[in-house]
Design brief:
Blueprint lengths: L2 H19 L9 E6 L5 E4 L5 E2 L8 E4 L8 E6 L6 H5 L5 E5 L1 E2 L8 E7 L5 E13 L3 E12 L5 E10 L11 E7 L3 H24 L1
Antiparallel strand pairs: 1-5, 1-12, 2-3, 2-4, 4-7, 5-6, 6-8, 8-9, 9-10, 10-11, 11-12
Helix pairs in contact: 1-3
Amino acid sequence: MNKAKVLAAALGMVVMSTISATAAIIAPGSRVDINSVFGSGVTLVDSAGNPVAVNSPSSVALDFNGAAPGLGSTGIQVGGAPTGTFATLITGPTLGVINGFTFNPFPGGGVAPLYTLLAAGGINFDLTSITSIDRTARGFELNGTGIFRISGYDNAPAEFSFTTQLASGGTGGNLSFSANTVAVPEPATLALFGTALLGLGLAGRARRKQG
């Protein structure tokens, strides 16, 4: 067996051993949407903790059901149909809690958890970074990245998007909101997959040379 074949075989064993050693995996692309429970909502606040308009540039935090002097939490529910792994974990109406947090400046340790769903013994999402904040004439949108933590599953990186808009004729305060979170491939998994493809390519090249 030549060196290329040995390398390919070794890479194959690495891939198989890695797969067999992991816990259950949250499939990339799995998505869950959440909404505010009827009667609850979010308020954007400035650095002094005062409510401001949803599109105000002075807002620095999201406060759920105001718990001055801190940032409150509020109930959430799953909205729409979960997809991928979450379609099996969330099989009926599911409630949870989302926690208020400061986004400017964003805390160095992130927000853990940002929200928890009560399905499957607890589906936790930690917000670890903010990638963009957009304010429009009538709304606020925040995008970021984070990690899903679910008992029995490997932690999975995910992308997060949060939006809230002015109520008709309103200027802010207790606004409804929605958010979605989508699991993405683990960087290490992508690297491993690329290495395996490289091994297959080397094996193919060796066969062509022998032919």
